[in-house]
Design brief:
- This protein has 7 helices and 9 strands, in the order ααβββββαααβββαβα.
- It has a 5-stranded antiparallel sheet with strand order 1-2-3-4-5. A 4-stranded mixed sheet has the order 8-7-6-9.
- α1 packs across α2.
- It has 2 domains: about 110 residues, no CATH class; about 90 residues, TTHA1013/TTHA0281-like.
- It is α+β, with helices and mostly antiparallel strands and about 200 residues long.
- β6 and β7 form a beta hairpin.
- It is about 35% helix and about 25% strand.
- The radius of gyration is 18 Å and the shape is globular.
Length: about 200
């Protein structure tokens, strides 16, 4: 991706879903586009961060496991970066991305782990909701090995077969939430295969 800004790889689930279009439409105006681009360059390939449209049509960057937003950032009407730490229930307004970077320091590592609320929900009724929650893996293949990862995590699991890679990913999810490995086979898992994985399955 040399020379291509990271934000150009970001997609939202709309038919016209390129990053600039979503920011123009839901990021509250063309005048904010440069700031949204700066934020996309900072966060697009940063592990755990996801970009989406939330609430009543508001563009937002968020960090948290499995869709949680423990840290969120968006561009406000004064072209500042509105940074929210939802664990601390605090807001911070950054004038530039370097200040955002400084704000993130010391916060990201904790936000990449499940929050106490998420852990409590997962463990409820003997892991009933955890087992029923859908997990979607991204699978690729290279050098004789499949790799499986969750979009919100920076770790991947590997296997010589697709089944092995998916099973190992399920174990990783259980370990992340402190769930017993005995329920690994009961997790609700789907997988999105990239071109390399599909090509290998067809050979």
């Amino acid at each position: 991706m040399d020379g291509i800004p990271p934000y150009q790889s970001v997609r939202v689930n709309f038919s016209n879903n390129d990053y600039d279009n979503v920011c123009d439409t839901f990021g509250r105006g063309f005048d904010r586009r440069p700031a949204w681009r700066d934020l996309g360059i900072l966060l697009a390939h940063r592990p755990g961060w996801h970009f989406n449209v939330v609430n009543h049509g508001e563009a937002l960057w968020a960090l948290g496991v499995l869709g949680e937003g423990q840290l969120t950032i968006y561009v406000d009407e004064k072209l500042r970066f509105h940074c929210c730490d939802h664990n601390e229930d605090t807001d911070f307004f950054a004038p530039d991305v370097q200040t955002v970077e400084n704000w993130l320091s010391g916060r990201e590592e904790a936000a990449r782990k499940p929050s106490p609320t998420a852990l409590e929900f997962a463990r409820a009724e003997n892991w009933k909701y955890f087992k029923g929650r859908p997990f979607q893996l991204r699978v690729s293949w290279s050098d004789g090995t499949y790799s499986a990862s969750l979009p919100d995590l920076d770790d991947a699991t590997f296997g010589h077969t697709l089944a092995d890679a998916v099973h190992n990913a399920a174990e990783m999810i259980c370990q992340l939430f402190g769930a017993p490995t005995e329920i690994t086979s009961e997790l609700t898992i789907s997988a999105e295969l990239d071109e390399s994985a599909v090509r290998q399955l067809r050979t």
